[in-house]
Amino acid sequence: MADHGHAEYATAEGNDLPAHEDTYERFVHLAFVGSAYVANIVIGLAIGAVAGSWLVAFATMLIATVVAIIGFASGARVPSMVMVVISLIALALSSGG
Questions:
Q1: H/E element, 88
Q2: Which end of the chain is more exposed for a tag (fewer CB within 10 A), N or C?
Q3: Around 28, how many Cα atoms within 13 Å sit in the side-chain half-sphere?
Q4: What is the pLDDT, as a whole number, of residue 32?
Q5: Can you give the pLDDT at residue 31?
Q6: Confidence at residue 30, expressed as pLDDT on a 0 to 100 scale
Q7: What is the DSSP string of 17-86?
Q8: CB–CB of 65/37 below 8 Å?
Q9: Where are the domains of the chain?
């Protein structure tokens, strides 16, 4: 069998841990904001399908798109979660009566 040596990460060139951590943080942010955006779109479709309020559904999806773009650009996650809550409130109000 081939002789496998041990990798020495402390002296290996190209081992850029801060860059790896930064890439991971950007990936987690993309997954978070993207998931919130998909949730907003699904809630918007539910508003249109359940309540027949397609104008409210379109407005919800349009605002969710703007919030997602701002979240991707700024690095903020709070606006995406606030938009999910607002979408859920719009669903509750539009399907309630």
A1: helix 78-95
A2: N
A3: 8
A4: 96
A5: 96
A6: 95
A7: HHHHHHHHHHHHHHHHHHHHHHHHHHHHHHIIIII--HHHHHHHHHHHHHHHHHHHHH---HHHHHHHHH
A8: yes
A9: 39-95
